[in-house]
Each structure stands twice: as structure tokens, then as C-alpha cells.
Amino acid sequence: MREHRRRARWRPAFVLLTVLLLAGVFLVRLTDVQVVQADALRTASKDRRSVTSVLPGPRGDIVDARGTVLATTVTRYTVTAVPWIAAKAGHVARDAGRIATALGVDQATVQAALTADPKSSYALLAKQISFSRLEKVQALDLGWLYYQAVSKRTYPAGAVAGNLLGFVGADQTALAGVERAENTCLAGTDGESIAERGLDGPPIPGSETVVTAAKPGGTIRLTIDRDLQYYTQQVLAQRARQTGAAWGSVVVEEVRTGKLLAVADWPTVDPNTPSKTADTDASALGSRSFTAPYEPGSTMKAVTASMLLDSGAAMPATQVVAPYRLMTADGADINDSEMHGNEHLTLTGVLVQSSNTGISQLGARISDATRLAYLKAYGFGAPTAVGFGAEAGGSFGSDAPDWDPQTRYATMFGQGLTVSAVQMASAYQTIANGGLRLPVRLVDSCTTAGGAVTAPANGTAKRVISTTAAGSTVRMLENVATKGWLRADVAIPGYRVATKTGTAQEVDSSGGYSKDYLVSMAGIAPADDPTYVVYVALSQPTKLNTSQATAPIWQKVMARALQAGGVVPSGTTSPDLPTSW
Fold first, then answer.
1. Alpha carbon distance 430, 379 (integer Å)
2. What confidence tier does 479 reach under pLDDT thresholds 50, 70, 90?
3. How many CB atoms are located within 10 Å of the residue 162 CB?
4. Interatomic CA distance for residues 419 and 435, integer angstroms
């Protein structure tokens, strides 16, 4: 009995102790939840009932020298649906028809997307639709439709300057051209938004809150003139087709600034649809004017002549006997393009007749090391200051300046070394600018979204030849224009012009010379007050494989540049220099 009473007394104490222990455990757990894990649990809860979205920072514009937009970013929209809610609401077929009408697509396509998985929470109905289409869809007032803004890169002028501009991928990643080279300026900074998630999964319309605002990219202003660029591309395309050329380039450079006013390539690429070009000719996606090295041919003779004048090794009237074929003492075998007897030519006459044997004899008056130094000073052998993607620097051969005899002479008339079209234009800019080479410029400036303007570091001007040597070279080239076989094709009424043609055998895949030719023409106008340089190159013009293929392009483009620039006609006539003796 006493034992029973003792147990009865301890029972309440045991119950109380148990309650206190349970309360303690609960208190510890409550403290852990409300204090220790509070932030983590709040975040997890928030994550379960909210959805984070990226706000794309739009890429900046690319504009021409006058501010005309060549590349810009527009907002497009993606339309999605929640099929299980649509099914629950009923009338899927009717609603699919209404949506299809608003989107301008086939009803069967929309209905198939909505019914493919009736239990799904996601179905893509349309991508990249315009705001006007979006408004029509929103007017349907269907609560199970959702919309997301996305960026789309567009090029209003289509293929105009397309090879220069480059293009971006579907995710707005810069892939080529100016888009890629100037991505630091153009790229925007993405922002972030958060929206409340409904019980059905998708975000609740109108609940979006911007956490970090998106920042747009800057604007790139090019030196290119859109109108001149368009005209140049049209002229090039027409002539390339007429002559059966594989590809072609035209470069227009302003003499006193080094600015590129037009850089045309054919075939062209429309950056709105670059895949169409890639399907037919992937090599045409870039700008061959920058990226395609080739042996230039006789346009290089003017450069060699300028070295002779600058070094004092020759004058415009320096005499030489130029045979059809020249066998040099060191073993080189050189010949001209057409059979002829011995010609008594001056240096001017060598340029007019485009004599390989004549320029080889005179060019030998300069050491190979000196001539290589001149070539490098002209900018050959290294990319230009533009820094265009995959730009070719060209080469002088692995043994330069210790060339073998054949290469030694060949480089004097533009074979055995490679250049780009932009490099050749720059060399003639140097001659036209009194011997002062200016860095080639394609990008004029970057203007940030905040208005800060910065100009690229283009480098400094470099004296290559004397003013006297440059002036004499221009006058000799005037005689090429007035006395050469294409004088009628290059004449521009009212203006003195200075030109030089080029024809070079192309190198085949084995490293030897093929039967194909690259023809070219370089020129300056007005010759008495040099303002523009135009350089033209056509590869493999099967229907006319001489420089006559390039002459109409040069004449038309230079004439348009002079007109567009309001250049005053020449007030004097070209000098008449002796070409023979």
C-alpha cells in the first residue's frame, strides 16, 4: 500500500518533467527555425513563390559617319502558354484560332502546341513577334498566356556594309566584324527582375519588380558613308558578275585623314540573314578587303618607283633599256606580259608601259634590306591600325630580305609578297599625302549610353618618303592615266587623275602559280590636290582577265566620291613627262 502511494506521488512529477522536456525541444526547434535558419528559410520560401528573369541590356547602335543607323537593337516578344489551364478553361480549339489570327500563323500550329501535353505548364507559341502583334494577343485577355521581352539585332540597310558590320548570334553574342571587334563598347549590361509565382506555377501578371535595371551599350560611329558604300557595292557587284569574277574588293580612303569612306566586298552578306551566305560561301562572311592576302601585281611598281625617287637612286626621267625578257647575272628570269623588242624607257615610261624588266633593273639600285624597310614603313607585313577581325598582315616570304634572285625581282613588281586591299589603298594614301602615312581608320568613336565619347587609339602619322618624292610619283602616275592603254576608261571630266593597273598570277593550293589572275587598279584624284584614293581588285575574272575589268569600277566610284565630297575640279592639266628616249 505504501509502495502504491509512493508511485502515485512521483507520477505528476514525471509528467511535468516530460512536458518540460518536450517544451524545451520545441523551443530549441522554434529558435532554430525562427532565428538560426530564418534567412535561409525565407530565401527558400521566396524562391518557391517567385521567379527571377534576366532583363537584357540592349546592344548599342552602329552608325555611319553621318549618324545613319546601320545596326540597332529592337525589342521582340516570346509568347508562351500553360496548356493545363487552357484545357481546364475549355474552348481550346476556339482560343487557338483567336491566338493564331492575332499572331498571323496557322491555327493548327497553335492548337498542336496547346494540346501536345494537356498537363504541361509550358508551351511555346511564338518567338520574335513585334509589339503590334503582341498587342493583338494581349487584347484576347487570356490569363494563361505569358509574354517575355527579348532583344533582336537588326540591320536596317540590309547588306550595305554587311561584310564590315559582321553579325551576332541568336543570344546576341558578337560573332564577326565590327560587332565583335567593338563589342566592349556595344555590349549592354543585363539587369534582373523578380515576379511572384502563382499556385499554378507561372508568374503572376503585374507582379514583376525590377531588381537591377539593364544598361544599354554604347554607339559606334564608323567613318563609312552609307550612300557611297551602297553605290560602291552596286558598281562592284555588277562588274564582278559581268566579268565572272570569284570575288572583288573596293576601298575608298580619304587622303588627309586616313578614313575609310567605303569598303565594299563581293559577294556581300546581309547580316540579318548571315546563314544564307554561309550556306553558299562561308569565306564571304567577313571582309576580304581586310582578311584576304594576295600578290598585288603591278600596282606595287608605283611603290618601288617612290623608293627610287626618295633614296635618290632614280628620277622620273632616269633611262633604262627594257627588253621583253631579262636574264639577270644572279640567275633570275623575268619577262613582260606581252612580246616586244628592246624599249628605251624612262622611269615614267616604265610605269606607263608597266614593264617588269624595266622596274627590275632600276629597282636593283636599292639594296634588298633598304627596300624591305621601305615596304614595312608603308605598312606592308602587318595588320592596319583598324584591328579588323582575322585581318591579314601579308608577308614578304620567309627569307626576306635574303630573297632568292627570282623573288628579289618579283617583289619589285608585286609578285612574291602578299598584301590586303586595305594595305594597298593605304600605300597610295601615303603617296597622295606627300609621303606621310596616316593610320587607317574605320571606327571614328564610341559614345556610351551616358554620353561620354572616346576615340580609338589609331596610332600616329609616319613619314615614309619625302614630299618631293611623293609629288613626283603622283605626276608619273598621272602620265599613266593620260598615256596608258586604259586612258579613256579612267578619265573623269574636269579632274586630273593618277592611276596604276595591276595583273598578278594567283597562287594555287600547292604554292605554285595557277592559270588564274587577280587584276587591280589603284588611283588618286584630283592629282593636283589629292583628296581620295580608290583601290579595286577582282579575283579570277574569267571573262576579262586584265585590268580593264577593274577600270569602270574605279572610274565610277572615284567620280561619285568626288561629286559627293563636293571636290572642286582641277584648274590645270596633267604634266607631260618624257616616257622614252
1. 10
2. very high
3. 28
4. 19
pLDDT digits (tens, 9 = 90+) for 390-414: 999 999 987 889 999 999 999 999 9
- AA letter at 377: A
d(CA 254, CA 451): 28
Which among 375, 317, 326 is positioned nearest to 347, based on CA atoms?
317
- 517 in Cβ contact with 540 (< 8 Å): yes
Q: How far apart are CA 72 and CA 70, in angstroms?
A: 7
pLDDT at 204 over 90: no
The three cell numbers of residue 300 are 606595287
- What is the rounded CA–CA span in Å between residue 316 and residue 581? 12
Instruction: State pTM to two decimals.
Output: 0.87
**Are the CB atoms for 505 and 514 separated by under 8 Å?**
yes
Length of the chain: 581
Which residues fall within 8 angstroms of residue 207, CB to CB, at 6 or more apart? 195, 196
Alpha helices in 104-225 (DSSP H): 107-115, 131-138, 162-165, 177-181, 183-186
Q: Are 521 and 499 contacting, i.e. CB atoms less than 8 angstroms apart?
A: yes
Question: At 36, which helix (H) or strand (E)?
Answer: none
Distances (CA, A) of 289 to 139, 277, 294, 389: 51, 17, 10, 12
